[in-house]
Design brief:
The complex is a heterodimer of chains A (200) and B (178). With 200 residues, chain A is mostly helical. Chain A contains eight helices and two strands; from the N terminus they run H-H-H-E-H-H-H-E-H-H. Chain A has one domain. Chain A is globular, with a radius of gyration of 20 Å. Classes of the chains: A mainly alpha (200), B mainly alpha (178). The interface between A and B is large, with 135 and 133 residues.
């Protein structure tokens, strides 16, 4: 029963081999989907290319429904998986700063690695920026250490917050995703008609 | 070639829904094997801590933030996300080679800005993303995608934070892209 490494089914010595293999699959999927180009990624905010929305939300609902299924048939002990801890205000602020970073920088961290892999200089500069940003954050940390640690709610899920069982959230995300896939199809078509050409 | 044809020249990319299904299955597999999801920004954090600890060990260990990630028994680079991110580079290269996208150094930028301006903006955007990912306890991969997939409240906050902000501010930055 999973998770395999925390449950000792696979020895911890395999951890890094598995990490590289999973990373290769991750990078391959991102690049093959077109995430190595900042213009493809930024398209989601301007309506000319919704590849980010399509890949991201499909992945999200497949993983959500899959986890429900794995739990239902008893393959995975959901109590043993990592739940990202919630720090309310810092995460809201972090999300907003990352939103600025995405629109201004045209990448997010994982996608910038795949951009570097195929020779995109803007991806390289983005990754250097990541490095400098995190270094700067560390140096300035004493200034906002209190805020950084504020709003701690522990490793809570949507169910813990609302009392609504997880399958309802999986269903809601699925319905929203399908509606978004359908709606953005028309937006993309319309926007592209008025757009100057761009090469991928 | 008409302009529509060039924009629609997506045959070289895989179908986005196929890409999404594969990525979703990969998250599922990753959680099934390791108990946690994917990530990316953590690897850069490890690189920051590692270089800083090499150049100025005492200052790094005294730093309230970086000090947490320094340990006596192994280098800060010896973490799961660093190996996974090396894999991401290799996987990206592999896909690029297979689909013929690996080429000499080049820069993607909107039609109204120069490549040099794009570099500065990429540097600035990267720095913001780096700072935001520390407050957010992860980036698009670790918090927004893997976090939300496991129904973590914080993951969903980061997800809506990133994309919500993106849509609100996109208009003001339109000259960078369209």
């Amino acid at each position: 029963m999973g998770p395999l490494i925390p449950n000792g089914v696979i020895g911890a010595g395999w951890d890094f081999v598995i990490a590289i293999l999973i990373g290769i699959a991750f990078g391959f999927i991102l690049e093959a989907s077109g995430f190595s180009s900042s213009r493809n990624l930024a398209g989601v905010f301007y309506g000319y290319n919704f590849v980010v929305l399509r890949v991201f939300f499909t992945a999200l609902i497949v993983a959500m429904v899959g986890l429900m299924y794995f739990d239902f048939v008893g393959w995975l002990d959901l109590s043993k998986i990592f739940i990202l801890p919630t720090y309310l205000a810092p995460m809201v602020v972090g999300g907003i700063i990352m939103g600025f970073g995405f629109v201004i920088g045209g990448f997010c961290p994982g996608t910038s690695f795949t951009g570097i892999a195929i020779g995109k200089l803007d991806a390289l500069f983005f990754t250097i920026g990541l490095y400098l940003g995190i270094f700067g954050f560390s140096l300035a940390f004493p200034l906002f250490e209190g805020f950084y640690n504020s709003g701690s709610m522990g490793n809570i899920t949507l169910t813990d917050v609302t009392g609504i069982p997880a399958p309802y959230f999986a269903l809601a995300f699925t319905v929203i995703a399908l509606a978004a896939f359908w709606g953005t199809m028309f937006i993309e078509k319309k926007v592209r008609k008025n757009m100057k050409q761009y090469k991928f | 070639m008409s302009k529509d044809k060039i924009i629609d020249n997506q045959s070289k990319y895989i179908n986005p829904y196929l890409g999404g299904v594969l990525l979703g299955l990969l998250i599922l597999l990753t959680i099934y094997i390791t108990g946690r999801g994917l990530g990316a920004s953590g690897a850069i954090k490890s690189a920051v801590v590692s270089t800083s600890n090499t150049i100025a060990p005492s200052a790094t260990q005294a730093n309230a933030y970086m000090g947490q990630f320094v340990s006596d028994d192994h280098s800060p680079m010896y973490t799961w996300l660093v190996f996974e991110s090396l894999g991401v580079l290799l996987g990206g290269l592999l896909s690029g080679l297979i689909f013929g996208r690996v080429g000499r150094f080049r820069t993607d930028h909107g039609p109204k800005i120069t490549a040099k301006k794009r570099w500065l903006l990429a540097l600035l955007g990267g720095a913001l993303f780096g700072i935001g990912s520390q407050f957010g306890r992860g980036c698009t991969s670790g918090a927004a995608l893997s976090g939300s997939a496991t129904f973590a409240f914080g993951g969903v906050i980061v997800l809506f934070g990133i994309f919500g902000t993106g849509y609100v501010i996109a208009y003001f930055f339109r000259k960078l892209w369209i």
